[in-house]
Description:
Helix content is 32%, strand content 18%. It has helices at 23-31, 67-71, 75-91, 114-127, 136-140, 144-153, 168-181, 199-207, 246-251, 280-292, 313-325, 338-341, 348-362; strands spanning 8-16, 38-39, 52-53, 103-108, 159-160, 187-194, 237-245, 258-267, 302-304, 333-335, 364-365, 388-389, 394-401, 405-412.
Amino acid sequence: MAGGKRRVVITGAGVVTSVGNDLKTTWESLLAGKSGGAPITRFDTTDFKVKFACETKGFDPALYMDRKEVKRSDLYTQYAMAASVQAMTDAGLASGGFDPYRTGVVIGSGIGGIATFEDQLKVYLTHGPNRISPFFVPMFIGDIAAGVVSMRFQAKGPNYAVQSACATSAHAIGDAFRMIAYGDADVMIAGGSEAAVTPMSIGGFGNMQAHSTRNDSPATASRPFDATRDGFVLGEGAGIVVLEELSHAQKRGARILAEIVGYGATGDAYHLTGQPDDHEGLQRAMTRALEDGGLHPEDVQYINAHGTSTPLNDPNEIRAIKKVFGAHATALNVSSTKSSTGHMLGAAGSVEAIFTTMAMVHGIIPPTINYQTPDPECDLDITPNTPVAREVHAALSNSSGFGGHNVSIALKRYTE
């Protein structure tokens, strides 16, 4: 790795999404062009402008937590635990084999336990303060997923949550990468979780005109880079990776999925929810990730784009990619897997970094589905509708968030 820092590899991954409750199922769904968009089942949407989202389907927290833990945890924590158990099992570390004092957890959420907050507010308004659950605060706060995962695996190293809206879990992976690279830990469990398909979230995003209103066609509503896109589709779930220092992974004979080589994090300092022209902040994040990883633009084959399916983000991100990659931009495959999973907010970055890793492992670029009408402003190869077989030696995973947060993570196929 550039700069003499310790090398960091991915040895495990787990996801919960609207198109699968584990990584294998989710990956197969992406390649098959499945969409998680469907009418909301969790509450009555009669009075709402938006009546659909990418909810998880058939998720069973009891597979990962005992009944008492489930009852005392918000859904976002349950998703985080499920993806963490999957990732640690995938890495071969679920039963130990690591120094707990050199193992940490960074798991974030863009919104945290908002369903718990809404439920307990109803209790307060109906029955008064004495009926508020004593578990309300630990169920609601955004750091508790990191805490319970650390307890589950007795990880006593660095432990905290980050929160940067839709860049949250990308920051979590980047921070964990740096902790290992600079010697603060040898193993990190990192990513994000979100469970925000609730009345307040759907109402809020709908009223700010950020969410698609294609209530008649929820499965095709998330259509990044398409000229007829009209907003994102809210998703939910979690994505967790296990990161290890290279020699630590080698000594135990771990299967290495990919290597994280670079991390770029920037701020726009521009607008609460908008972006500057040509997304200058994301340009700097991508450039920094490439420099940190010792990569040249022409080394990269694939970019998993932030690609939200909003009128402003998509062409702005395409322009940013063109600015950074120059003539090589036309040789890239770009795709937005939000077309399948919806926008998972604080979980989006980690889930998409995992998809980028899978593209390397399998030599297949996941498609941008629901692409029907070309937009001349989004004129790169956005891998429309059908997966593409291609060897991926280096890739970027991009994330941005309200407040002007930008992250780009650079990954490489692992070679000794």
